[in-house]
Specification:
With 995 residues, the chain is mainly alpha-helical. It has 45 helices and four strands. It has a two-stranded antiparallel ribbon. Strands 3-4 form a two-stranded antiparallel sheet. Helix 26 runs antiparallel to helix 27, helix 39 runs antiparallel to helix 40 and helix 43 (941-953) packs across helix 45 (972-986).
Length: 995
């Protein structure tokens, strides 16, 4: 294809492309712009068509530069001469001749100038035609351009000539860049740089041509109308950006103003560079393929640097390339495995593909450890399927299938080699399988192989003839790299399967037992595993027999049931402990059902009936069941039964209580009935299976207590109008109570505690009625003693209850008396002498209140006395209160009462109540003794003098009178005068006394 060029006269066009200003042409010279086709490629480079010279251009083309100058000079000289001649001829004067010479000389000069001005255009056309004659513009050399310029004497910086060079460069760049649908080859930048150097074009001029190519692509994008063509032109523009940046390197940022001219962002430029660099590097990786060596990795690293691709992106592309190569092998292997028409060696072929993958992975691992790894392409290392086609939950099963096939092929020879074990680990890492997933597959396959080899060893007799069975089995595990613990589990499973086959008819014969023993010895199965297998398999059969026997109920446990139980207990070769454990589990489940119904009953009588059914079930079914399991004879006489009953462990424990202090309880005596009653009721129930571990202690004691109350009250029936009557009461119920205690698993101590608490409760309820007022009389004591004997409660505990009741009643009375102020310290001391514990009956707050009241009474007694030892020591000790706190209370009361006593004395003085005055002054002196005070002040001193006079007349002791004088602030002279006045007052009637 030889695309044509459209020559468009445009003298202004190249000025806009070139960065430097040019002198405008004043002649008819024209510059030509080349219009390139839309889709051009390096393989079909467009070449310019030949141009023809016309007119003066042909003359200039024939003349050399020197000849052209001579011709120009001759033309100018001839024009001047002709003008001079014409001016002389027609003007007739010298001036006219000179004017003609000047006029024609100017015209000749213009012609000569035009002749020389056409030379650059002619040189440009010749350069154009020269390039058109070449097979490819890249064949143009710098010497060729210099030769054409020298031939016409043209400077290469001339506008027309330089414009032609730029057009040729622009054409070459367009031809080198592949169209949008094709990828870069990687040599475009080198070719453009080489051609640019050949042309000798400067970087600014070359950059302007790159921008012009971008304008053409941009215009073509605007011209196209379909989406695909627009995408193609966009990719072409991105390739131009990328190649241009490679051509100009770091100078691209200021030589190529993509953002300013085309309104593209920096990120878009980065994306264009990144995407094209990635495509080039990916293409380079495809050329490398699987044959990766150190030299190729170095080449890849150099290509990465050349393409300006970041290390991270290069690493990702390298890993993606290796992953795709591995995915090809995996896909082939999967197709082989999943092919319905595959032949027997299909697994081997699939494994070969996986071996290729492992070999490729090993080569990458070894290259990663190479000493020159820093010079290699980034991303060298183990292969991983993460992020690829098989990194999906839906593909994980396919990878597991391949892994299983590889494990199966590895173990096909009956052993696991060490190198294959390492290969399996690598394959697991490549597939991204979890350690547990891979181990599960290996375990499954290895288990099947182990079973197969074990079966061969058993059938061939190798295992039985081996001196050491354990060593034989261990060697087998070592060859397969199989966990001995897993092998032991397989042995146990084989034993279980064999046992399951032999016990299918419901029992094990002697031959069966011998066969199981032989198998156990060969497989080295421990005793506890054998017991566990028999317990699970034989136990499930025995459990069914036991459940059927229990389900038969009280009336259905006949001879056939007994026979089946005995046959199962012996024929299944269960140990006594295992058989009893199975029976216990089934029986306790039935017991729990009875307990649930008893709890859900509406009243005590109904609840007791359910418990009684459980006791009957235990006696008639469970007891017989245990006898059949143990193989005991069913022909037991009534006397023997009675003897067995006497040896009942629960009753023995109850009888053997500490100090026999509770043996007097009537209820405890009744649960140990005589032999006649036991013989009448039949054989006692078993006590080996109990609910001790199934129910908490509180629930068990509550159930026992419920039935005990039923024994005490009898069967109660409700009648109309809400009344209740006892319709049935029998002491034989206590025998069932004893059996219930055995079923519930209650110890002797727990049973005694129930009887004790119930006896104490009954005694307390009736004693509280007798001691309703808290008074203990002789008649009431006799009544309580009779009650104590009736209940059977020990004397000590009865006295404690009586004391508790009376104490409680007395405590309430004492608190009421203290609150109402009817209790004095004297009465408290009398109670203490009577061994009444005041501290426990009266709270501390009330005792402090009583102390405060006692002290207040002392301060208001009117005697004027205060005993410090009595108040500060004895009374607090009697009341058992804190002495320091008591002293604080006394001081506070004394200070308050001191001033109040003076005020009260003055008030009584004004009322002429002399006795009250003396009493108040004595109270003031008592407070002063408790807390010594300073002299008191009063607004009317005469009233203080009157108080002193009245007190003096009451004949007080000198100490009290002297202290009162001090407290009232009366000096000695005033006191003496008052004493004289007092003597005069003695002779005057009270009515005449004037205050």
């Amino acid at each position: 294809m030889n695309p044509s060029f459209t020559l468009i006269p445009s003298s202004q066009h190249h000025r806009s492309l070139l960065p430097l200003p040019f002198t405008p042409l004043t002649s008819k010279r024209r510059c030509f712009r080349v219009s390139l086709p839309r889709c051009s490629s390096a393989s079909s480079s467009p070449l310019p068509v030949h141009k023809d010279l016309t007119g003066v251009e042909l003359l200039v083309d024939k003349l050399s530069p020197s000849l052209r100058l001579a011709t120009s000079a001759a033309v100018v000289a001839g024009a001047i001469a002709a003008g001079y001649g014409l001016g002389s001829k027609f003007g007739g004067s010298r001036n006219a001749a000179l004017g003609g010479a000047v006029a024609l000389g100017v015209a000749g000069g213009a012609a000569a100038y035009a002749l020389n001005a056409v030379a650059p255009q002619v040189a440009a056309v010749n350069l154009h035609n020269y390039v058109a004659g070449l097979d490819h513009p890249s064949m143009l050399k710098k010497e060729d351009i210099d030769g054409i310029a020298n031939r016409y004497g043209v400077n290469k910086q001339n506008e027309a000539f330089k414009a032609e060079i730029c057009d040729i460069y622009c054409q070459f760049v367009s031809s080198v860049l592949p169209p949008g649908g094709e990828e870069l080859k990687g040599d475009e930048a080198d070719r453009i740089i080489s051609f640019k150097n050949s042309l000798g074009i400067d970087d600014p001029d070359a950059a302007a041509m790159h921008m012009e190519v971008g304008r053409k692509i941009f215009r073509q994008r605007l011209e196209v109308g379909d989406r695909e063509a627009d995408i193609e032109q966009r990719r072409a523009f991105q390739k131009l950006i990328y190649v241009s940046n490679l051509v100009f390197g770091e100078a691209s940022s200021f030589l190529l103003p993509w953002k300013r001219v085309f309104k593209v962002t920096d990120s878009q430029v980065e994306v264009a560079i990144r995407d094209n660099a990635q495509r080039l590097y990916a293409s380079k990786l495809k050329s490398v393929g699987r044959d990766i060596d150190a030299e190729k990795l170095v080449t890849l690293r150099e290509a990465q640097c050349l393409y300006h691709l970041s290390d991270q992106l290069a690493e990702n592309l390298f890993k993606e390339s290796t992953r795709k190569l591995v995915e090809e092998n995996i896909s082939v292997a999967l197709d082989i495995l999943k092919s319905r028409t595959r032949a027997a060696p299909g697994v081997s072929q699939a494994v070969e593909e996986l071996d290729k993958t492992l070999a490729f992975n090993n080569s990458l691992i070894s290259l990663k450890k190479h000493p020159d790894v820093d010079r290699f392409a980034r991303g060298v290392g183990p292969v991983s399927l993460l992020g690829g086609e098989y990194d999906d939950d839906g593909k994980i099963e396919d990878l597991k299938l391949l892994y299983r096939a590889y494990v199966t092929n590895t173990l096909s020879g009956g052993c696991m080699e060490d190198n294959k074990l390492a290969a399996l680990n690598q394959l697991r890492n490549i597939f991204g399988l979890g350690k547990r997933e891979a181990e599960a597959i290996r375990l499954d396959v290895t288990s099947k192989v182990y079973r197969k080899l074990l079966a061969q060893a058993v059938s061939g007799g190798d295992l039985e003839m081996a001196d050491s069975k354990a060593a034989f089995l261990q060697k087998l595990c070592d060859e397969l790299h199989f966990d001995p613990q897993k092998a032991s589990e397989i042995h146990e499973e084989i034993y279980r399967q064999k046992l399951q086959q032999l016990v299918a008819d419901g029992e094990l014969s002697e031959e069966d037992v011998s066969a199981l023993l032989r198998l156990r010895v060969m497989l080295c199965i421990p005793q506890h595993s054998v017991e566990a297998a028999h317990s699970d398999i034989c136990g499930s059969l025995f459990e069914k027999v036991v459940n059927d026997a229990i389900a038969s109920g009280v009336d259905g446990y006949d001879a056939d049931i007994k026979k089946s139980v005995r046959k199962a207990a012996y024929g299944l070769r269960l140990t006594r402990e295992t058989a009893m454990s199975i029976a216990s589990k089934a029986v306790r489940k039935i017991f729990i059902n009875y307990i649930k119904r008893a709890r859900a009953a509406g009243n005590r009588t109904e609840s007791a009936k359910e418990l009684k059914k459980m006791i009957a079930f235990n006696t008639l079914v469970v007891t017989e069941l245990l006898k059949d399991i143990k193989g005991e004879s069913a022909d037991v006489s009534a006397g023997e039964s009675a003897d067995v009953s006497d040896e009942d462990p629960v009753k023995e424990d109850v009888t053997q209580t500490e100090d026999e202090e509770w043996d007097s309880l009537q209820t405890l005596e009744k649960i140990r009935p005589n032999k006649e009653l036991v013989a009448k009721l039949g054989n006692p129930g078993q006590t080996e299976i109990t609910l001790k571990d199934d129910l908490p202690e509180r629930d068990r004691t509550d159930l026992y207590k419920t039935y005990l109350l039923f024994c005490l009250t009898g069967e109660v029936t409700r009648v109309p109008f809400g009344a209740q009557i006892t319709t049935k009461k029998d002491d034989s119920e206590y025998v069932f109570l004893n059996q219930l205690g055995g079923i519930l698993g209650l110890s002797s101590k727990e049973i005694v505690e129930v009887h004790k608490s119930l006896a104490e409760q009954a005694f307390r309820q009736q004693a509280e009625v007798i001691l309703a007022d808290g008074q203990l009389t002789k008649a009431r004591v006799e009544q309580l003693n009779s009650l104590q004997k009736q209940v059977g409660l020990p004397q000590e505990y009865a006295q404690k209850i009586i004391k508790s009741i009376t104490t409680t009643k007395m405590a309430a009375a004492l608190e009421t008396a203290v609150t109402q102020g009817r209790l004095s310290i004297k009465q408290i001391r009398e109670l203490k002498e009577a061994n009444v514990e005041i501290d426990s009956m009266v709270s501390e707050n009330l005792r402090e209140t009583l102390f405060k009241k006692t002290v207040d009474d002392i301060f208001s007694s009117g005697t004027g006395d205060f005993d410090e030892e009595e108040v500060f020591e004895k009374i607090p000790s009697d009341l058992n209160i804190n002495k320091g706190r008591a002293r604080g209370v006394v001081c506070e009361l004394a200070q308050t009462r001191l001033s109040n006593s003076l005020i009260q004395a003055v008030a009584l003085l004004r009322q002429r109540n002399h006795e009250g005055v003396v009493s108040s002054l004595n109270d003031m002196l008592s407070c002063d003794k408790a807390v010594p005070s300073q002299p008191l002040s009063w607004e009317v001193p005469e009233e203080l003098a009157d108080l002193y006079t009245i007190y003096m007349k009451s004949n007080p002791t000198p100490e009290k009178l002297s202290r009162l004088q001090y407290l009232l602030g009366i000096n000695d002279s005033t006191a003496a005068a008052l004493r004289e006045t007092g003597e005069l007052l003695n002779n005057t009637s009270e009515e005449e006394f004037i205050f």
